[in-house]
Amino acid sequence: MKEFLKRKNIEISVKRYLIDALGAMAQGLFCSLLIGTIINTIGTQFGIGFLTTTVATVGDAEYTVGGLASAMSGPAMAIAIGYALQAPPLVLFSLSTVGFASNALGKAGGPLAVLFIAIISAEIGKAVSKETKIDILITPLATIAVGVGLSAWWAPALGKAASSVGTLIMWATTKQPFIMGILVSVIVGIALTLPISSAAICAALSLTGLAGGAAVAGCCAQMVGFAVMSFKENKWGGLISQGIGTSMLQMPNIIKNPRIWISPILCSAITGPLATCLFKLEMNGTPVSSGMGTCGFVGQIGVYTGWLNDIAAGTKTAITTMDWAGLILICFVLPAVLCPLFNTVARQLNWVHDGDLKLD
Predict the structure, then answer these.
(1) Do the beta carbons of residue 229 and residue 340 sit within 8 Å?
(2) Domain count of the chain?
């Protein structure tokens, strides 16, 4: 069995399934749902007719360019997962059907259903790939049959479970905004810097509202915090790569000296409750935006999109000065001030030294 799994490149490990696959799923979400949302927002705000006009009608559903991109989130996630698992072409292409089925049947918690079902379908597909002379029939049939079958069996329950957990977190945040503001901000921020996907986690849990705002705060504390407090070592390249790229670049340095992580974590513990209690910062855009922070300014675009959604729904009258002040302070100003301040204290305590934050 070990020889067979090795020959088929099937590696049953936490890294393969919860780091590689989860990270790839987030990229699939970014290239479909998130990009679609950004396209729709740009089209609406700048009055670009081509981006706001219906370009396709399927049944009774009308789609804009952005709407088409968003509708493909299930297939995009599944194919991305298959790519991370190094699936052969026939398996990879067959996962488009699997992703569509699991995401649709999983409803609000669809991304979690896609993660589990796409992994199993991809591995089954890899196992049967090139084992027969009619591989072009057997491999797609096996991959799709397993994927659609599991989607019908598991996806509704997985989706409901993920949605329920997300709803519980959001409910708890509204009831205890201070405590939950700290917890959500710190945990999601840490997930952002770890080699897993905070964006995929937020998407799987459908994390929006005040909890989504706290998640944005935690992600920004890590990204902007590391970018600014390591400016001496990494200059402008480091500022950009971490500030609008990812704080995950600091993981090798964190492994060498975990104490460099103290400052961003403390910052997130402060900005999280400020976001929930003082500024009432809510993420009512796409849930995946909650876990993106300042990466391509997706978190901020998500918050802004949420404001527009609330205005359209009649639950918000207008975007206020307080809204803009909260977004700018929580996402940029406070992390840029607090993290270097905490890092200065850490240096005085001899916990952090010159070169500890230097990127390779």
Answers:
(1) yes
(2) 2
Q: Which domain holds residue 106?
A: 2-161
C-alpha to C-alpha distance for 16 and 11, rounded to whole angstroms: 7
358 falls within a domain: no
Strand pairing of 56-58 and 61-63? antiparallel
Output the pTM of the full model. 0.84
Do 29 and 107 belong together in one domain? yes
Summarize pLDDT for 54-69 with one digit per residue, the tens.
999 988 889 999 999 9
Which residue has tokens 């390591």?
A: 230
Q: Which residues contact 79 (CB under 8 A, 6 or more apart)?
A: 28, 92, 93, 95, 96, 99
Spacing of C-alpha 5 from chain mean position: 30
Q: How far apart are CA 284 and CA 233, in angstroms?
A: 37
CA angle 95, 132, 100 (to 5 degrees): 10
Helix axes 35-45, 298-313, angle to 10 degrees: 60
Q: What is the pLDDT of residues 156-180, one digit of tens each?
A: 999 999 999 999 999 999 999 999 9
Residues 132 and 196 in one domain: no
Cα–Cα distance, 78 to 322 (Å, whole number): 40
CA 4/CA 36 separation, integer angstroms: 41
Q: Which residues contact 329 (CB under 8 A, 6 or more apart)?
A: 274, 279
Domain boundary among 161, 187, 213: 161
